[in-house]
Design goal:
By secondary structure, the chain is α/β, with parallel strands linked by helices. 40% of the residues lie in helices and 14% in strands. It has helices at 8-19, 30-34, 57-63, 68-77, 90-100, 136-152, 174-183, 195-199, 210-223, 253-268, 271-281, and strands at 25-28, 43-46, 83-86, 111-116, 123-126, 160-163, 189-193, 205-207, 235-238, 243-246.
């Protein structure tokens, strides 16, 4: 029920994904969904309520057990679905996921991992908007989770850069300077990376705080030739104990279908298990085989 043109666009996207081999369960107002021309043959779980973009997300999710995003998260928590995709409120999606599913063991704060369509498999940007005011330790945790995401996408040895105003050591504000010291022990960390270099694909993973990452992402979207040109896949909530993706509210049917295919791909690749291994093995996971490609052959 989320998105600017729901449920028409989301139902059409679900139909396209199902025709491509993804088993889809739609959660929302059964009557409104059934009225869509692409709804035939799709499984529907009824949810009478939904949460609007302007609502207090955390409060609404706690108070409305019958809201579609919470019902969907419950399906995932009970093992009736492998993942959740929503084009609605990111805050409500995160709140529902944390309430129903919880965090990966060892995760202090989930982050948004956005996949920028650059290079062969894309560049992972983390955090793209979840943690606006964070400590340096949060960026190290983000780096480890984003590294697991990149590996789930097929990057064997991801390189990691810290988004900064200059590539030289010691650049940036107090947060980035302290984070760079912590990231030095993370396998794959190559140092600071400027926005232009990041967009050229200088690294596989770009790490930053949620405020900077969200501004960076929205700037890319604003400069794109069409409104929906980038990113072309939904963002993953890294650190939640199940696969949860948030699509852009303006996503079209093709992008909804792409988000559903992405959810299937990362669920099949064991994304959450990879994150758990990365965090339990420590920041240098992979150097001795822990969390690296050998563990996930």
């Amino acid at each position: 029920m989320g998105g600017d043109d729901a449920p028409a666009v989301t139902v059409a996207g679900a139909r396209a994904a199902q025709e491509a081999g993804v088993r889809v369960v739609l959660v929302g107002d059964r009557e409104r969904i059934a009225a869509q021309p692409d709804a035939h043959g799709l499984r529907v779980v009824h949810a009478a309520e939904s949460i609007g973009m302007g609502e207090d997300a955390a409060l609404a999710v706690r108070q409305r057990r019958g809201a579609s995003v919470r019902v969907a998260a419950g399906l995932v928590a009970r093992g009736e679905a492998a993942g959740l995709v929503s084009a609605g409120s990111t805050g409500a999606t995160l709140a529902a996921a944390l309430l129903e599913v919880g965090r990966v063991r060892g995760v202090r704060r989930p982050v948004i991992g956005a996949l920028l369509p650059l290079g062969k498999r894309g560049i992972v940007l983390a955090d793209a908007g979840a943690g606006m005011d964070v400590q340096p330790e949060a960026l190290r945790e983000s780096a480890c989770m984003a590294r697991a995401y990149a590996r789930a996408l097929g990057v064997r040895r991801p390189t990691i850069g810290l988004l900064n105003v200059g590539a030289e050591p010691g650049k940036g504000n107090e947060l980035t300077r302290a984070a760079a010291e912590l990231l030095a022990s993370v396998e794959g960390f190559t140092g600071n990376v400027e926005p232009a270099a990041a967009l050229r694909g200088a690294v596989d993973v770009v790490v930053t705080d949620g405020f900077t990452g969200n501004v960076f992402l929205k700037t890319i979207e604003a400069l794109a030739p069409t409104p929906n040109a980038t990113p072309d896949s939904a963002a993953v909530l890294l650190g939640v104990a199940a696969v949860v993706l948030v699509a852009h509210g303006a996503a079209d049917a093709a992008q909804i279908a792409g988000a559903l295919r992405m959810a299937q791909e990362v669920a099949s690749a064991g994304l959450c298990e990879r994150i758990a291994v990365e965090l339990s093995a420590g920041p240098s996971a992979g150097r001795a085989g822990m969390g690296g490609e050998a563990a996930w052959a």
